Amino acid sequence: MSGKYTIILAAGKGTRMKSKLYKVLHQVCGKPMVDHVLTEVEKTQPDQIVTVVGHGAEAVEETLGKRSQYVVQEEQLGTGHAVLQAEPLLGNKEGMTLIASGDTPLFTAATFEKLFAYHMDKGAKATILTATAPDPFGYGRIIRSDIGTVQKIVEQKDATAEEARVNEINTGVYVFDNQALFAALHEVKNDNAQGEYYLPDVIQILKAKGDVIAAYRMKDFSESMGVNDRVALAAATKVMQARINKQHMQAGVTLIDPDTTYIDADVEIGPDTIIEPGVYLKGHTKIGADCKIGTHSELINATLEDRVTVTSSTIEDSTMHTGSDIGPNSHLRPDSEIGEGAHLGNFVEIKKATIGPRTKVGHLTYVGNAILGSDINVGCGVVFVNYDGVKKWEAKVGSHAFIGSNSNIVAPVTIADHSFIAAGSTITEDVPYHAMGIARARQVNKADFWQRTAIADDPEWNQPDK
Questions:
Q1: Interior CA angle at 331 toward 326 and 334, to 5°?
Q2: Which neighbouring-strand residues pair with 410?
Q3: Which of 146, 265, 285, 430 is the most exposed place for a label (fewest CB within 10 A)?
Q4: What is the pLDDT of residues 374-410, one digit of tens each?
Q5: Is the preceding omega at residue 46 within 30 degrees of 0, hence cis?
Q6: Would you say 413 and 430 are in contact if contact means Cβ atoms under 8 Å apart?
Q7: For residue 287, which phi and psi values (nearest 5 degrees)?
């Protein structure tokens, strides 16, 4: 029975990136480039995926995990040599094999599927994925006969003037008959200036044997964009971002200004949500329906249920439940949970805390390592003091409590339901049900204080005759 296989080439270090991070691990819209490639390959449901690793092998394997098998290219001896490393896993199998590069993050599963279908329809031993390039300089050219069959691939440096005018280029993606591929790879020579074994040489070897060579020309040249330096990385990111934004808008999300809205690849957004300019949605953020994300907000692995409003605020690894709101200029740090209908106002910071339904934390407040019940009012300038210099402690506040402005809640402490904390208090002990906690010095009014102070400071009043 014939199978369908994929080989992803991810062994290159990428010296032109000028980075300690291996090239295929550089991110485009929140995901490493090689992860983008693998994600699209997985959608084609191949029987086996093999990733060729070399430089940064452990980092690549850690990133992709068990989604692929791996082989190592110990020496960088060219693309043909890289593919040959997969022979122990795939060499004897019948079927067709897709070969793609880990530094081409823009290819889609739809394009891969069309390439497979074209390959089978033509009964080819090899099918080249091609595209029409606005500026073909630097690409290998696809040279066809008068009847449209592929004659050869000519590299830029070897092209005649007439061949150089051809704008159909080789994208570096192929589908091969699997057994024919590995047989031909053993015939590839390295008699070139680089001393490397090139995968495109397989095309000429198969053609010389009389095998059918096909070429499928895709419509969107931008998919073929490879990344070799930071300039190309930025260009690929821009293309990917436009694609992601378009998908969300087509699904019912309003982006006020798509050009200044940055959404990572794995973000989910519900319909009728409005995203204002300057917003950055990162990681595995999930946003429900009918939400509003205001200008200059940043959400990182955040979960927002329906009808949540975020105004110019930052949310990290936290959850906001239905109808809650935050901002402007507030910050949810990791492991925070905001209940239904809760309100977080200006300059509020929450860290590893639960805010119950309908509780209001209006402004200039820090809540850390705390559990707050429902329907609580937290006044301005309240600080939950959770760290004693060695350990972080937890505070608990019951439902319907009132925390007066400028209070310090020193954990560990429990404030019961329906209790009241007087403004300006520093609470270090538990406050029972229906009680008021007050911890501040008693006010003393000094009569004529300013007048006596002024007299004492006046030299004339200090004379003996005064």
A1: 115
A2: 385
A3: 146
A4: 999 999 999 999 999 999 999 999 999 999 999 999 9
A5: no
A6: yes
A7: -120, 130
